[in-house]
Amino acid sequence: MLNFGGTQFLIGTKIIKRGNEMNKSFDDYNEEDINFETKEDIDEVTGAIDSQLWTKLEKVGKKISFAKDLLALYHYLIDKNVSWHRKAIVAGALIYFIVPIDTIPDLVPLFGYMDDLGVIAATLKFLGSELIPYYDS
């Protein structure tokens, strides 16, 4: 389950229907808007992640130790040869990192990114060695 601005979403239950509004914040999506059931859904979410990941990394990239892992996950996400099922997992992890209101809000000193690190670490463990080539991208 993901938490976007206080609203929780179950992955795979609703479909994103925002059209070309890729620069919208994830806080603007409601429960009826999110679903990763098709390749097109992943492509749409990838655009939203692309627009917001760089902003977040500019703000906190020097404070966190897993920035290189986030970049590898992003390169994995935009690779055309990766199946959309695998991309859905990565998209969920990156969305969790981007959204500031989650299990431990990112504004909490010292501990704000611990839950984000846990989600990213679990994703890295799940993908295993198939992610290694994306660290050089």
Description:
The chain is built from 4 helices and 2 strands, in the order E-E-H-H-H-H. The chain is mainly alpha-helical. The chain has one domain (2-135). Strands 1-2 form a two-stranded antiparallel ribbon. It is globular and about 40 Å long. The N and C termini lie far apart (30 Å). The relative contact order is 0.15. Mean pLDDT is 76; it is low at 1-24.
A few lines on this structure:
This protein has 137 residues and is mainly alpha-helical.
Separation of the first and last Cα atoms? 30 Å
Task: Tally the beta strands.
Answer: 2
Tell me, rounded to a whole number, the average pLDDT: 76
User: What would you call the shape?
Assistant: globular
What fraction of residues sit in β-strands? under 5%
| Helix percentage | 40-55%
Order of strands across the main sheet: 1-2
| Helix and strand sequence | EEHHHH
Rg: 14 Å
- Count the helices. How many? 4
Strand-pairing-aware structural class:
mainly alpha
Low-confidence stretches: 1-24
Q: Describe the main β-sheet briefly.
A: 2 strands, antiparallel
Number of domains: 1
Can you give keywords for this protein?
137 residues, 4 helices, 2 strands
